[in-house]
Q: What sequence folds into this?
């Protein structure tokens, strides 16, 4: 087993773990977002990558997901846990609650979705009935329970194009579609991981109510509050500390299985 953590807006870097080295990986699909940090967490070697780069200059639709995930394969990664900041759509997905998604609805467009998009390659029709690995997701949930993080054990993650946030009408549509949370990066990461036979799970922190959702939407007479990046940033900072707690506990669990 070899574990990798993908961070982004949430968990921009790993501060508490012992960094062993950094590696720049080149792939046939171009350059990954950043160098790969090799760290040790409770005796387990863990690889970390920020999908937006450390300087956070790569927008969600500009990420070279194919290079990022292929580099994981070159590094012999078998398990990936993606850390994401999301908006809450349904009532139970309130700010500062974690979710471990079990389903995806993909609203993105124009992203490199597959490694079998070249005419002379054989098409790989992966089964994507369950887009997240159940066993790894269960391990994440156990880690959350161990460190007393309030979380929902299932959620449908709606993936939007970004980088802008969504309109009220778009969130209403997503709610009707069955989405519980909204983010911008779970696809095509999850699909590419499946093509590469990498077990993939996501731990998502709700950092704001999605547009028109939550308490501001309880009354038809009440105008929805504008989402402020200042408020989101505060929750991201707090959530990143919580994420490191969860990952440390996850490493302890996984190390015990090796």
A:
């Amino acid at each position: 087993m070899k574990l990798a953590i993908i961070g982004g807006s949430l968990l921009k870097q790993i501060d508490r773990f012992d960094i062993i080295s950094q590696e720049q990986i080149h792939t046939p699909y171009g350059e990954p977002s950043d160098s790969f940090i090799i760290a040790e967490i409770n005796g387990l070697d863990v690889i970390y990558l920020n999908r937006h780069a450390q300087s956070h200059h790569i927008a969600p639709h500009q990420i070279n997901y194919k290079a990022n995930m292929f580099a994981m394969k070159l590094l012999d990664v078998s398990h990936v846990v993606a850390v994401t900041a999301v908006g809450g759509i349904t009532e139970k997905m309130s700010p500062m609650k974690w979710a471990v998604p079990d389903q995806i609805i993909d609203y993105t467009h124009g992203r490199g979705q597959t490694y079998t998009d070249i005419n002379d390659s054989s098409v790989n029709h992966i089964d994507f009935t369950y887009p997240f690995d159940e066993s790894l997701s269960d391990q994440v949930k156990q880690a959350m329970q161990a460190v007393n993080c309030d979380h929902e054990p299932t959620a449908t993650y709606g993936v939007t194009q970004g980088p802008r946030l969504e309109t009220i009408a778009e969130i209403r549509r997503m709610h009707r579609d069955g989405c519980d949370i909204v983010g911008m990066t779970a696809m095509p990461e999850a699909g590419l991981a499946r093509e590469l036979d990498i077990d993939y799970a996501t731990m998502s922190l709700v950092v704001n109510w999605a547009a028109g959702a939550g308490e501001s939407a309880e009354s038809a007479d009440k105008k929805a509050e504008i989402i402020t990046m200042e408020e989101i940033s505060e929750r991201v900072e707090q959530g990143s500390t919580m994420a490191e707690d969860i990952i440390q506990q996850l490493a302890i669990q996984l190390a015990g299985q090796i």
Observations:
- Residues 3-255 form a domain with the Rossmann fold fold (CATH 3.40.50.1580).
- The chain is about 25% helix and 25% strand.
- Residues 229-255 form the longest helix (27 residues).
- Helices lie at 65-74, 134-146, 168-177, 186-195, 229-255.
